[in-house]
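Thanks for the sequence, V.! I ran DUF2185 domain-containing protein right away. Repeating your input here for the record:
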Amino acid sequence: MNNSDFGGFMVSNNVINGYPIQYTYREKSSISQLNGWTILSSIDDEEYISNPDNFTILGVTSIVQIAPVLLEIFPAKYGTDLFWLYDDNVHIGFYDLKSEREVTITEILQ
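Predicted structure:
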């Protein structure tokens, strides 16, 4: 896996520090090295996410260590906005915040 094939993911430092991923969204980035994915933790609030110092750009090799499922949803369209669902601290699926329903990875990629 080559980091340059995927571009950079914008990741909350709280995720890097071990908090579960709660939200991911993808939007077209004005920075060509970024792939548009932003990854937020379960404890990030508006004040936290408004400070750019609270984020780190990670490559795909680091992302795979944190959440391999991100590679499965990587090709999702810009505008994808997902809430991560857990059962007993195990990731079990996604809730699409636009369609307001649980969705499968296949549906995310349509």
